[in-house]
Amino acid sequence: MALIAPSILSADFSNLSQQIRLTEMGGADWIHCDIMDGHFVPNITIGPIIVKAARKITKLPVDVHLMIENPDKYLEAFADAGADFISVHVEEVVHLNRTINRIKELGCKAGVVINPATPVDSIVDIAEYIDLLLIMTVNPGFGGQKFIPNSIRRIEEAVALRTKYEAKFLIEIDGGVNNETIIAAKKAGVDVFVAGSAIFNADNITAATAELKNLAK
Ligand code: DX5
Ligand code: ZN
Predict the structure, then answer these.
(1) What whole-number percentage of the chain has pLDDT above 90?
(2) Is the dihedral of CA 66, 54, 82, 197 positive or negative?
């Protein structure tokens, strides 16, 4: 059974508590926070203060996706804000093994993220040390984009790599997940689905979450 992690990037922030509650009623498993600094990606979104708010609102694991320059500088801030998972982009971190160790030292689960054109095997030498591999299925920066088709092959490559190196990481995808794209992605072996617009732009947030949950079975 795969998990559903609604991305609050697409939520109505004037009503964040109610929006998160509605996803919980639909069976959401994690809450995904897309942190953007306008440098690593061409958009600015939220920081530790909203993770702190989400932490107060939900008991679900808070899954923090750092799309920022120099994430090492902010690991403590996000851990203190209540993150359960902290994921950093391999494209942005020079000493990735040290960063992963630091995230764990802070008591969080450690994830690495790869952009759509970053080879899956770029994580081969960190694979056994991470809890989560987040495969971007859109170019990071905005919700509501189209799922990049070759992502299915990349998911399959990640599953094969995990087996080959006897690693234990969960495979998460982020971007363009909806009730169509989830089918092939689930078959390819995804463990956690991030979905923003498919959930928060729906007429009924609870039903949209429940539908994805059902398709993730
Ligand atoms: C991209 C963001 C989005 C978001 C999900 O930087 O990370 O992928 O989480 O957006 P949707 O589900 O609307 O594509
Ligand atoms: Zn994300």
Answers:
(1) 100
(2) negative
